[in-house]
């Protein structure tokens, strides 16, 4: 297998964007990534998208995106794994370059979520759970994560204050990110008194509905060294991917995200790294409890210690293990198919030293963890500055 | 939303009668599957209709088809035969739901589906 470098990154602004279509957002992000990398062509492309059909009445994104980018007839593949679609697209692109099948591969993620009503968006998202045995009972995604939060609280004594601090921290980081959908700080009191959604979770424990797109350009390290030298080189050192049951109720333990744990182990093993070698991580905080459980599954904290660590400030920008320097899904926004790609862009920006006001001091290794549904799929990538 | 009666029809045995399957090693699968892990075979069983709450939530922002029930309790129930499934917890004060609470399954109307208003039934749990 060849080593793979990330040679270009590009975003389309995120938010509630009534003037921007799915195809236009994709093309803007892709063009920005192409320009950032300096490539004059691409050999192949992947598009992570959860539900072009339900959100935007558009399938066949392979053809649409290649067409509007002016890239036909190159091969293009749309990848779906619910909210992990972007992360899985990253893995597919990495595999294609690592295998030697292609040299220059565009990996993108896109989701257009605000063309439909809130009820319709809730339904579209709910199809990431078991439609017949979870959705039918009237559960929502906040409801599924609320049940994990309740189980975590009962087993470990995790508190609502600890979960709320995750949101406070992510909004503080997002306030420093010009691309964030909600770039403002919130207080612990505001989070704890926000509208109840699914007990014990409130509105400000939940990530928002977002339109957005993200893209990166991959190339083999050997080629990047000689030809694409615009930026300090960032290399994909490890990739891990795992699945779990689609229904939360089918699992033995509701307090651990096993797919994230296994994907993490595989990525650590491939990269030759341990949790203590990681300088920063972007994790899938679709709900504040998800960040706590992800930081435990990835080995940054012992099971049950993710909440106390968040409250102590260990995961803050100036903490011992910065988590979601971008603002996370909570503040930066969560266009589901784009999230996994945007996590990799944040790590790349930090490793290059391009992260502006939220720049960490000389990070060397970063980890991105993306997750589908209630943890039915998860992907982890480990990036290193060369 | 269009009517989807074949899709509804396929789930009737599970939803109305709690029909499940038990493998040779004793694990219960609800609903029954086409294939089982490890290549085991399974025989049909009916779930015990009593159990306890393993974890729960109270939904304040419901999906559209359940908007008239909000707020309602939802929990993961472990039946007394060891199967786990998700069900609404009804006929009780949502403030009184707790982990470990004993419950009993009942046949209930769930929602209507499609422009034609197909009546949909299934299981919910009530305090035992």
Structure description:
The complex is a heterodimer of chains A (about 375) and B (about 130). Chain A is an alpha/beta fold and about 375 residues long. The longest helix of chain A is centred in the last third of the chain and has 17 residues, at about 335-350. Helix content of chain A is about 40%, strand content about 20%. Chain A is globular. Chain B has one domain (about 5-125): Beta Barrel (OB fold (Dihydrolipoamide Acetyltransferase, E2P)), CATH 2.40.50. Chain B has helices spanning about 5-10, 10-15, and strands at about 20-25, 30, 40-45, 50-60, 70-80, 85-90, 100-115, 120-125. The interface of A and B includes residues 138, 147, 196, 248 and 249 of A.
Structural class of chain B: mainly beta
User: CATH architecture of chain B, please?
Assistant: Beta Barrel
User: How much β-strand is present in the residues of chain B?
Assistant: over 45%
Mean pLDDT of chain A: 98
**Please, what is the oligomeric state?**
heterodimer
| Count of DSSP H/I helices of chain A | 14
Number of helices of chain B: 2
Number of strands of chain B: 8
Largest sheet of chain A: 9 strands, mixed
CATH architecture label of the largest domain in chain A? 3-Layer(aba) Sandwich
Largest interface between protein chains, with number of residues from each side: A-B, 33 and 33 residues
Q: What fraction of residues of chain A sit in β-strands?
A: 15-25%
- The level 1 CATH classification of chain B is Mainly Beta
What is the overall pLDDT average of chain B?
A: 94
Strands of the widest sheet of chain B, in order across it, are 6-5-4-7-8
């Amino acid at each position: 297998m060849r080593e793979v470098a990330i040679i270009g990154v590009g975003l389309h602004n995120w938010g509630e964007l009534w003037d921007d279509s799915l195809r236009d957002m994709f093309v803007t992000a892709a063009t920005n990534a192409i320009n950032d990398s300096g490539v004059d062509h691409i050999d192949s492309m992947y598009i992570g998208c959860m539900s072009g059909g339900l959100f935007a009445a558009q399938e066949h994104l392979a053809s649409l995106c290649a067409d509007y980018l002016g890239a036909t007839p190159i091969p293009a593949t749309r990848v779906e794994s619910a909210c992990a679609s972007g992360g899985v697209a990253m893995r597919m692109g990495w595999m294609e370059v690592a295998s030697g099948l292609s040299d220059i591969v565009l990996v993108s993620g896109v989701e257009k979520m605000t063309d439909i009503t809130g009820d319709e968006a809730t339904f579209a998202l709910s199809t990431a759970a078991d439609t017949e045995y979870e959705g039918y009972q009237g559960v929502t995604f906040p409801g599924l994560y609320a049940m994990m939060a309740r189980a975590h609280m009962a087993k470990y004594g995790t508190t609502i204050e600890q979960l709320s601090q995750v949101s406070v921290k992510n909004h503080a980081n997002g306030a420093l990110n010009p691309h964030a959908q909600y770039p403002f700080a919130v207080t612990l009191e505001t989070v704890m008194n926000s509208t109840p959604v699914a007990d014990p979770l409130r509105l400000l424990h939940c990530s928002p509905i977002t339109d957005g797109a993200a893209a990166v350009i991959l190339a083999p390290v050997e080629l990047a060294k000689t030809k694409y030298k615009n930026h300090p080189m960032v290399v994909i050192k490890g990739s891990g991917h795992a699945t779990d049951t689609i229904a939360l109720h089918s699992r033995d333990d509701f307090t651990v995200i096993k797919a994230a744990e296994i994907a993490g182990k595989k990525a650590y093993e491939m990269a030759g790294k341990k949790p203590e070698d990681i300088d920063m991580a972007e994790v899938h905080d679709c709900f504040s409890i998800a960040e706590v459980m992800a930081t435990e599954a990835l080995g940054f904290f012992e099971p049950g210690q993710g909440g106390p660590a968040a409250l102590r400030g260990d995961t803050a920008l100036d903490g011992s293990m910065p988590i979601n320097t971008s603002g996370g899904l909570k503040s930066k926004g969560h266009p589901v198919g784009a999230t996994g790609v945007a996590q990799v862009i944040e790590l790349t920006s930090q490793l290059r030293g391009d992260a502006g006001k939220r720049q960490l001091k000389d990070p060397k290794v970063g980890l991105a963890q993306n997750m589908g549904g209630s943890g039915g799929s998860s992907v982890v990538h480990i990036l290193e500055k060369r | 939303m269009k009517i989807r009666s074949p899709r509804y029809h396929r789930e009737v045995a599970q939803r109305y009668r709690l029909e499940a399957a038990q493998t040779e090693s004793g694990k219960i699968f609800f609903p029954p599957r086409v294939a089982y892990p490890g290549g085991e075979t399974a025989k049909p069983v009916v779930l015990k209709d009593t159990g306890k709450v393993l974890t729960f939530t109270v939904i304040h922002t419901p999906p559209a088809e359940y908007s008239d029930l909000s707020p309602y309790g939802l929990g993961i129930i472990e039946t007394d035969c060891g199967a786990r499934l998700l069900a609404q917890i009804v006929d009780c004060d949502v403030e009184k739901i707790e982990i470990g609470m004993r419950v009993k399954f009942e046949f209930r109307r769930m929602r209507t589906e499609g422009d034609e208003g197909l009546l949909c039934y299934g299981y919910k749990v009530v305090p035992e």
